Amino acid sequence: MDEAEESGAAAGAEGRDTRTAVRAWLRLLTCTTLIENEIRSRLREQFDFTLPRFDLLAQLDKAEDGLVLGEASKLLMVSAGNVTAVVEKLLASGYITRQPSPTDRRVQIIRLTHAGRAAFRTMAEAHHGWVEELFAGLSDEETATLTDGLARLKRSAQGRIAPREPARRRAGG
């Protein structure tokens, strides 16, 4: 197969090269992984802290009245079990409190302590600098173009993802 045939074979129904989207996805995934791994490493080295704990503190920093554990799970896009493990570590360090809801004793609300807020703000400032450093090879215009393109990609993906029905528990399962 020559180059023209190969190009035609990879063209989608709209005449687009279907490999382009896959290449873009792989590049995006690689960049995300590189940056995330570097942030994880720096949090661990400089603050003896994990990214999941940092992410939960970030959500709590924005939530003046605290968060119900289920809300935290949804915001972080992780299971309730994962949130519980992170919460236990943050409770032990004195960064958060956990109290039952005044309206429903079965519901637990977590909040930042003063020490947790101060620690988070210090880490967030460093995090901001690290991201700036990792993006330093791009001009402001390139960063704005990338941000705009990613916003369009997000809208495109959201518009094509079918809503899923919640999984139903099977008897005996």
Strand content: 5-15%
Which structural category fits the helices and strands?
mainly alpha
Question: How many DSSP-defined strands?
Answer: 3
Quaternary structure: single chain
Main sheet properties? 3 strands, antiparallel
Report the average pLDDT across residues.
Answer: 88
List the strand order in the largest sheet.
Answer: 1-3-2
Envelope shape: globular
End-to-end span in angstroms?
Answer: 51 Å
Radius of gyration based on Cα positions: 22 Å
| Helicity, as a percent range | 55-70%
Structural description of this entry:
- With 173 residues, the protein is mainly α.
- The chain is built from seven helices and three strands; from the N terminus they run H-H-H-E-H-H-E-E-H-H.
- It has helices at 3-9, 18-47, 51-62, 69-76, 80-93, 114-134, 140-160; strands at residues 67-68, 96-100, 108-112.
- Strands 1-3-2 form a three-stranded antiparallel beta sheet.
- Strand 2 and strand 3 form a beta hairpin.
- The chain starts with a helix and ends in a 13-residue tail after the last helix.
Helices and strands, with pairings:
Elements lengths: L2 H7 L8 H30 L3 H12 L4 E2 H8 L3 H14 L2 E5 L7 E5 L1 H21 L5 H21 L13
Antiparallel strand pairs: 1-3, 2-3
Identify the notable features of this structure and list them briefly:
globular; 173 residues; mainly alpha; disordered C terminus; 3-stranded antiparallel sheet
Please provide a brief summary of the model:
The chain is mainly alpha-helical. Helices cover 65% and strands 7% of the residues.
